[in-house]
Write a structure and sequence with these properties.
The protein is α+β, with helices and mostly antiparallel strands. Helix content is 22%, strand content 30%. It has helices at 2-7, 41-49, 79-85, and strands at residues 9-12, 15-18, 29-32, 37-40, 58-61, 74-77, 91-93, 98-100. The structure holds zinc ion (ZN).
Length: 101
Amino acid sequence: MDTRLRHYSRRHGECLLWIGSRIHSGYGMVWVPEESKQRLAHRVAYETWVGPIPDGMDIDHTCKVRNCIEPTHLRPLSPKENRGANAGEAHWSWKHGKYAS
Ligand SMILES: [Zn+2]
């Protein structure tokens, strides 16, 4: 999984940005062969590089960039806390070369 995550990401300043497929909301998606399904890239990155995500927890981006998978920017947050924290979150658009919401 480590190789796959690195292959589909690029360093951009402090962030490690996902360049693979994305869903409409700006989150990166990665194919997980072991589970035969697509999963959110930042969650897979957290599990791969940090550890298991506690039950029912969301993964918050402290940098506010949804398609960032830099493990030091990811932290588990309860869905309730996450809704408040994510106001104003954006994602990096490679196409436009800027952050977009
Ligand atoms: Zn980041």
